[in-house]
């Protein structure tokens, strides 16, 4: 099991969500508002705030779905402009369901 973590432009969220829902067996995701900056920074003359608004997606997926989810996010979030975002794949060693107490190394 892996975690796919993506930071994307807020206006791309609906399009990304629709594309991910087309993947058979898509396990679902969590979305959070966040702020940050990378190499490209904005400058405000009076109050310097380099932070840009982004949406953070967290998806825990079985290994066989990781590549298609990763590629779908990259393709759908792309606009060709700086600041489109980043996508990461992280190892998720174990998970558990609070409702049932079920604990499994491959829990999706």
Automatic annotation (TrEMBL):
InterPro entries (UniProt xref): N-reg_PII (IPR002187), N-reg_PII-like_a/b (IPR011322), N-reg_PII/ATP_PRibTrfase_C (IPR015867)
Classification via Pfam families: P-II
Coiled-coil annotated residue ranges, if any: none
Name of the molecule in the record: P-II family nitrogen regulator
Species this chain originates from: Methylomonas fluvii
